[in-house]
Amino acid sequence: MSTESKPTQVAFCPHCGHDAPQSLLMVHSFQTSRSHGEFFTFAKCETCGLPLIYQRQMRWYADKIRTQGAFYYDLHSRHLLYPEPRKLHESIPPKVRRVYAEALRIKHAAANSFAASIRRCLEIVCNDRGASEDTLTKQLAKLKAKGEIPQVLAEMTDIVRLLGNSASHDDIEIDAGFVDTIDEFFRAVLDYVYVRPFQLAEIRMKFDHAKMAIKSIAGKVS
User: For the domain 94-209, what is the CATH code?
Assistant: First the structure.
């Protein structure tokens, strides 16, 4: 089948960070005793040439075939499996998640804009944690003084801040190779500030419930 005859739809590609045409390569379906069936769509981004894999339930697919025709190619209604979308933990404030999601869309397409967006994310985190000083430098220093972030993360965030400043003022062009490092630094901050405390609270709650259950059983036995 020629490239021109393949179904194509414009969708966001995490590989290159563009809304780009994605052409169908193949569809694979299967069914198990535990499910109504699944089908996987293999597509190729026509901008960067890299593959993408989507998943959807077979029951939904069969309904669409009946209503839309022999083959229904709609990437927006399918779950992207590969490359795996970088979603943030539920404990992270919605505004941080929203601005970070916007930053990811330009991560590989515009390094300077991505660095500036991550700097903005840092400001949102600082404000959320009660550090509302007039500069990001002072905000980060307050978080460090409060024990919200340790020394090594304080150094990381300072690097991100400096890169974000430069990107915002167009003083330098951020090398594309820096974007993954900036991303990893920022996610490490989020993990320390939000995710680990959330997980610790969950563990403590489960432990407390377990202790109560043990006391209840011991009381009945005695």
Answer: 1.20.120
